[in-house]
Amino acid sequence: MNLRKLGNLAVLFCMVGLGLLASAQRSGRLYDPAKETTLTGKVTAVNTTTGRRGWNGIHLTVQASEGTYDVHVGPAAYLTEQGFSFAEGDQVEIVGSKMDFNGAPAVIAREVKMGDKVLSLRDKQGIPLWSRGRGAGQ
After folding, report:
1. Closest listed residue to residue 70, CA positions, set 98, 106, 97, 99
2. Gap between the Cα atoms of 23 and 133, Å rounded
3. pLDDT per residue over 23-80, tens digit each?
4. Could you tell me the residue ranges of all domains in the chain?
5. Which of 4, 64, 90, 113 could cross-link to 39 by cystine, CB 3.0-4.6 Å?
6. Assessment of whether the complete model's pTM goes beyond 0.70
7. What is the CATH number of domain 33-131?
């Protein structure tokens, strides 16, 4: 095989590899705007979990008329920065993407309304607002 063919083959492998990587990243996104829903209900539990990047994340258990949902809110540091916190008994309205998480109904929140306060978490495509130019823990 001559050097030119070898070079072309290397470029082809790189292009295919990058295409597969980009496809995997897109399919790995959990937020699906096509599955967006609005839930209204009562917070029955507030949980802090440690995510893949070591951030403390806030999850709510929300009892809505259509069932109980695990609501993935966002990094605790971002909520603190926004002056937002949750407690059992809070009435909330959540706009987010419905999904199945570990066999149970869940919602990835884009926006949470509580009384006259609104917590914006993601843009309409589901991209986290806390990731714009810095990490959640900063």
Report:
1. 106
2. 23
3. 333 323 689 999 999 999 999 999 999 977 788 999 999 999 999 999 999 999 999 9
4. 1-30, 33-131
5. 64
6. yes
7. 2.40.50.140
